[in-house]
Specification:
The N and C termini lie far apart (60 Å). The protein has helices at 19-42, 46-72, 74-79, 93-109, 135-159, 200-216, 227-243, 263-285, and strands at residues 2-7, 10-12, 15-17, 110-117, 120-127, 163-166, 175-177, 182-185, 188-191, 195-199, 223-224, 289-290. Helices cover 52% and strands 17% of the residues. The protein contains eight helices and twelve strands. The protein is an alpha+beta fold. A hairpin with a 2-residue loop joins β2 (10-12) and β3. The strands form four sheets. It has a six-stranded mixed β-sheet.
Length: 302
């Protein structure tokens, strides 16, 4: 069986860093840098890309937590309604995807413009003179997202926040949960428990590596705008739907069920429908095929 890994919290002076938080930060900032590089290569406006990312991340992190609380911890809301505001306490990937979509839609119609509040310089939200297209910039991010997502899913795998159902000890993906001997190696420890279980974070990590390799192999291809966004939805949704059947039951520390399906499975159905719609949209509108490189966009005058 695969040993159950436990990574210690990193302490530097009075600061404490959780392994999950560090890996999520690497995923976010690494993804932003990859998107910037791809935007430059494509001749896209990097400044516009960064405003798009800002809207997506703002909505994404808030919605990731709210979705997690509502769908996975509803009784916590009853007990502590203010837990919805504690955005640093638990996030859901599907909630993040939903928030990113909401943020992209808000960016399409609104922008931040400079404003003065008394003696202070600030920004206010203003409606755009004309809506901006989402798909060209969104596809730049979708092309690099799986590579950055590897770090995020690695975080899930090492903190084991998605425990799976019992597995056969001979399964190649069985993880040794439960009590048992352990060995320490500096900043992490390997436990050799007696209870073989699937770890959904680990399984999704393996799948993410596969999708990343597939996307990287096509980065220099001339594909229709929206191809990466559509492929992301159509690849992830059915795999996530199937993997959630391997999740532990709610009583065993796993996910709750609603009409026999997990919140992730219901979200995967919606995601698959969105992917089918996006493919139909791309075909109906005959979106252009972009060359791997394009002349750089001139810098905006201030």
């Amino acid at each position: 069986m695969i040993p159950y890994i436990e990574v210690y919290v990193l302490k530097i002076g009075s600061l404490t860093f959780s392994p999950f938080g560090l890996l999520v930060a690497i995923a976010v900032f690494g993804g932003i840098e990859l998107a910037r590089r791809r935007a430059r290569k494509r001749g896209a406006d990097v400044a516009e890309l960064m405003t798009f990312v800002w809207w997506m991340l703002t909505f994404g992190f808030v919605t990731a937590h709210v979705f997690d609380e509502i769908c996975y911890h509803p009784m916590e809301i009853v007990r502590r309604p203010w837990s919805l505001l504690l955005v640093w306490q638990g996030i859901s990937s599907f909630g993040g995807f939903l928030g990113a979509a909401l943020g992209a839609t808000a960016w399409k119609y609104f922008e931040l413009v400079p404003a003065k509040i008394g003696p202070f310089e600030a920004y206010r939200v203003a409606r755009r003179a004309s809506p901006r297209p989402i798909l060209p910039i969104g596809d730049i991010i979708a092309a690099v997202f799986p590579v950055a997502w590897i770090s995020g899913r690695l975080g899930c795998a090492i903190v084991h926040d998605h425990p799976g159902a019992r597995a056969s000890a001979t399964s190649p993906f069985a993880v040794a949960f439960g009590p048992g001997p352990s060995t320490s190696y500096g900043f992490f420890e390997l436990h050799h428990g007696w209870r073989p279980q699937y770890d959904l974070g680990l399984l999704e990590l393996v799948f993410t590596i596969f999708v990343s390799a597939l996307f990287v192999a096509t980065w220099n291809k001339k594909l229709p705008v929206g191809s990466y966004a559509a492929a992301s939805l159509l690849l992830y949704a059915p795999v996530r739907f199937a993997l959630d059947f391997l999740r532990a039951e709610d009583a065993e520390g796993g996910d709750p069920r609603y009409l026999a399906l997990t919140p992730g499975q219901w979200a995967a159905v919606a995601m698959l429908a969105g992917g089918v719609w996006l493919v139909a949209y791309i075909r109906a509108n005959d979106t252009p095929r972009l060359a791997p490189t394009a002349p750089p966009v001139p810098a905006r005058s201030s």
